[in-house]
Amino acid sequence: MDSQPVMTADLDLYGVLERLAPLASAYLEIGTKDGASLRTVLTANPDLSRVVCCDTWQRRTRTGKPATHAHIEALLAEMGWTGDREYLDGRSTELVPHLTETFDLILIDGGHSFETARDDLEHCFALATRFMVVDDIHLRPPVWAAVRDFCVTKGSALSSTMLVTFSRNGQAILERRR
Ligand SMILES: C[S@@+](CC[C@H](N)C(=O)[O-])C[C@H]1O[C@@H](n2cnc3c(N)ncnc32)[C@H](O)[C@@H]1O
């Protein structure tokens, strides 16, 4: 950590994603909700080869069953995006460890407890080839604590372009050393 410069920029999550998406080919998103971040990424880079979205969706259908990603499919259809996509409907800490592919852009914007953020960071790091973005590091102190611990233990595997922004929510951008 000590030799890594920290840069700051006045961006929000969408500004961060807009800038990183053109550098990516495969995108993993933990926490998709209504698709605002996904829309940002795909608008900035419609040529992404693959998108994987993980969310508990946290809403129930009218029959009381867990909600699924149907509204995201509708969004992608509206955008005219026909690329390869996969949905992980459920908790990231249980589902992401089953992935075996790699991603050059990962957004962690799901559960906000320390344990969930810590586990998401670990699991995503195993799949990351370049950027991991963590949202809400200011808004949610447990998320910041998990990011801070992660940077202390994994700092030598991060490149010198680690960058933290100071919007209301706050994002950490971790670039894996290549
Ligand atoms: C802040 S919202 C995501 C917003 C989205 N990234 C955007 O900017 O448009 C957080 C989402 O994470 C989901 N979520 C919460 N805990 C989760 C978990 N443990 N695993 C997967 N998704 C989770 C919630 O259902 C919610 O949709």
Protein topology:
Blueprint: H1 13-20, E1 26-30, H2 36-44, E2 50-55, H3 70-79, E3 84-89, H4 92-95, E4 103-108, H5 114-125, E5 128-135, H6 141-154, E6 163-165, E7 171-175
Parallel strand pairs: 1-2, 1-4, 2-3, 4-5
Antiparallel strand pairs: 5-7, 6-7
Helix pairs in contact: 1-2, 5-6
Bound molecules: S-adenosylmethionine.
- Give the ordered list of helices and strands: HEHEHEHEHEHEE
Could you report the average pLDDT, rounded to the nearest whole number?
A: 90
The top-level CATH class is Alpha Beta
What small molecules does this complex bind? S-adenosylmethionine
Q: What are the low-pLDDT stretches, counting only 5+ consecutive residues below 50?
A: none
Count of domain modules: 1
Briefly note the structural class of the backbone: alpha/beta
User: In whole angstroms, how far apart are the ends?
Assistant: 16 Å
The main sheet orders its strands as 3-2-1-4-5-7-6
> Strand count, sense and closure of the main sheet?
7 strands, mixed
Question: Might you state the CATH topology name?
Answer: Rossmann fold
Which percent range describes the beta-strand content?
15-25%
The Cα radius of gyration reads: 16 Å
